[in-house]
Amino acid sequence: MSHDVVGVPERPAAVSQPTRSLADMVHDALVDAIYDSEMQPGERLRESDIARRFDVSRTPVREAFRRLEVEGWITQTPHSGVQVVELDRSRVMELYSFREVLEGTAAGLAARHADRAEIELMQHIHRTIRTAEGSREQTRLNRTLHDTIFGAARNPYLLAAHTNLRASFACLRGSTLAVDGRLADAAREHGEIISAIGCGDAERAQEAARVHIREARRIRLMMMTGLTASP
């Protein structure tokens, strides 16, 4: 926007931001579909179907597929074609182990660096999750809470690792929060993390975050072995 001042020559017009390409729009829509479980792990994605779905040619679909593969959302093989990534039990456990380290470190750093506005935002999201209707909205708010903690850690490398891990977790079937009783337990665990961050207790925040992820891993393993299931 131009800010003209009397007596001062007008600035050259600002260079407009490049518009999002069709490939960008297809990419983002597919990421949302995987996050929202509209596309399931192991599901095949055909160029022609996706092109019709978004009313585009196959070229932006191919470009979107290339990006999604690099980011870890999909896999392409000569025999099976393009599929949403499906993780086996071993890889899931490895992911949770890595996430435990990341989340603990982020919470500890957030206890040192979070400002009052960030702590109040965490508290607000925490309250909202408990009253949210539907597992999809609860999952979205849960993701926002964890993003807020990572942002408060003030460490771009940690945040990048967290962002890169998202694709793998989005490719898991169902949310652990949807398992009966898990939402209440997770709320208590979140409350402990936020309380420790608010008090500036880095050691307690780190341990609380690690306990939270260990519990989520336990529920995930039960889901994968059929001992419990999301509704």
Question: What features would you describe in this structure?
Answer:
- The chain has 231 residues and is mostly helical.
- It is built from nine helices and three strands; from the N terminus they run αβααββαααααα.
- A hairpin with a 3-residue loop joins strand 2 and strand 3.
- The N terminus is likely disordered.
The total of beta strands comes to 3
Structural class: mainly alpha
Q: Spatial order of the strands in the main sheet?
A: 1-3-2
* Shape type: globular
Question: What's the pLDDT, averaged over the residues?
Answer: 89
Beta fraction: under 5%
Radius of gyration: 21 Å
Q: What is the H/E string?
A: HEHHEEHHHHHH
Helix proportion: 55-70%
Count of discrete alpha- or pi-helical segments spanning 4 or more residues = 9
Enumerate the spans where pLDDT stays under 50 for 5 or more consecutive residues. 1-17
Please give the alpha-carbon distance between the first and last residues: 50 Å
Largest sheet: 3 strands, antiparallel
How would you describe this structure in keywords?
231 residues, mainly alpha, three-stranded antiparallel β-sheet, disordered N terminus
Task: Characterize this entry briefly.
The chain has 231 residues and is mainly α. It has nine helices and three strands, in the order H-E-H-H-E-E-H-H-H-H-H-H.
